[in-house]
Amino acid sequence: MFIKTIIHIAQLIMVNLQCRSSRIGGKQAGASALEYLVLAAILIVILGVALNNDTVQAKIQSMFEGLFDSAADQAPAA
Asked: Taking CA atoms, which of 5, 18, 59, 68 is between 20 and 30 Å from 74?
């Protein structure tokens, strides 16, 4: 619920910024620095929540546990 709220707020901010930029700046191509900052802030919050969640940490750890085991088993003996 917390992440959905943050995403909703970010979407409202982005819509507001787009409306203002079209009125003030005329034709603007590409994203402004403020939009990139908002996007970076959203990503930091999402990653922070995900990395502090025990369930997500366990899934990430289990994904990478056997990553190199099969490669080591198939390597020719030196």
From this structure: 59
Q: What is the pLDDT of residues 8-32, one digit of tens each?
A: 777 878 787 777 655 555 555 667 8
The amino acid present at 18, given as its one-letter code, is Q
Indicate whether this model's pTM tops 0.85: no
Task: For helices 33-51 and 2-24, give the axis angle rounded to 10 degrees.
Answer: 180
Nearest alpha-carbon partner for 33 in 44, 41, 43, 22: 41
User: Residue 8: phi, psi to the nearest 5?
Assistant: -65, -45
Sequence ranges of the domains in the chain: 2-24+31-61
